[in-house]
Every structure is written in C-alpha cells, then in structure tokens.
Design a protein that fits this description.
74% of the residues lie in helices and 0% in strands. With 191 residues, it is mostly helical.
C-alpha cells in the first residue's frame, strides 16, 4: 500500500514536471508579447513624453483624466462601438446565407467558395488601396456609375454622414468569408 502511494506521488510529480516543461514556452511568449507591452504602455501613459525626448517627467494619472474629458476620444470610442455592432449585424446573417447556399449546392458551388473566400485572403493594405479607388469621389466605381446614370459625383469617404458606413461595408466585405467558413464547417457536422 505504501509502495502504491509512493508510485502515485512520483507519477504526479513527473506529470507536473512535464506540464511545466510544455507550458513554460507558451507562458514566456504570453509574458513577452502580451504582458510586457501592456505594462509598458501603462507606465508610458503616466509620463509626459512626446516619443522622442530623453526626459519623461512623471505626471501620474493626468493623461488619463485628460483622455476621459476629451470629446474626440469619446467620438472615436462611439465610432468603434458602432463599427463593431453594425459590422457583426451584417456579417453574421450574410455569412450564414452564403454558407447555406454553399452547403445546399455542394461540390457544384466550389467556384463560389473560392470567389467568396478571396476577400479574406487579401491583406488589409491591399483592401484599403482597392477601396480607395473604388470609392474615389471622381473616378471610383460608384461615382462613375452615378455619372453614367445622370447623377453627380458620389463621395462616400469625404462625407462624414456616410463615411463610417462605407468603412463598415468594406470591413463586412473582407470578413464575411471568415464567418461563412465557420458556418460551413458547422453544416459539415450536421448528420
């Protein structure tokens, strides 16, 4: 009985050592790439520094007080919330509809799988450049279409009333394939 207790103790100890050996690299990576930048950024937020000067006078939480009282910060915060909520509101149902279409048509829809997944494979820089030209007020796709139909120029990015929605549209265009793939995988698990 005593030998079984000692064996169980050695087994628990060797399991703990193995777990530590396997977890240590992941923990170190998390500390270096997530923990350190968070702490460093918070420390930097407590000093008055322009990013270049050698001196960094300590100001405490004054920067945070100024941030909380800044109207531009709250407008940017509101815009981020609107982008998050509206983009998800459009991405999820459209992705579900596309995944449903692909699941119903099976292998016959492989062409659509490729075409619809391409936006997700593009880099954000390439998408930014592409939509800069698509949404251009003078020569972009929508401006040219509007002029061809007898209307005037259309400026989606220069009009602050619709610029946020134009950006949301671009975000949706890029990330709908991501959710589509999730739904398609889920459909594959349904018997």
């Amino acid at each position: 009985m005593k030998a079984q207790g000692a064996l169980a103790k050695r087994r628990r100890r060797s399991t703990a050592i193995a777990a530590a050996v396997f977890l240590l690299p992941a923990i170190l990576i998390l500390i270096v790439f997530i923990g350190y930048p968070i702490v460093s950024t918070f420390i930097t937020s407590t000093v008055k520094w322009n990013g270049l000067a050698e001196t960094k006078p300590f100001v405490g939480l004054d920067n945070w007080k100024r941030l909380v009282s800044d109207k531009n910060f709250w407008q940017a915060f509101r815009n981020n919330i609107v982008v998050m909520l509206l983009s998800l509101t459009f991405q999820v149902p459209f992705a579900l509809a596309l995944a449903t279409f692909l699941d119903i048509h099976g292998k016959k829809a492989n062409f659509f799988k490729v075409v619809w997944f391409l936006p997700y494979l593009m880099s954000p820089v390439a998408i930014g450049i592409l939509f800069k030209y698509v949404l251009d007020a003078n020569y972009g796709f929508f401006a040219s279409l509007s002029k061809a139909l007898g209307g005037g120029s259309v400026d989606f990015l220069g009009n602050q009333e619709v610029a946020l929605f134009a950006v949301i549209g671009v975000i949706c265009w890029q990330y709908i394939p991501f959710y589509m793939l999730y739904y398609l995988a889920a459909y594959g698990n349904i018997p």
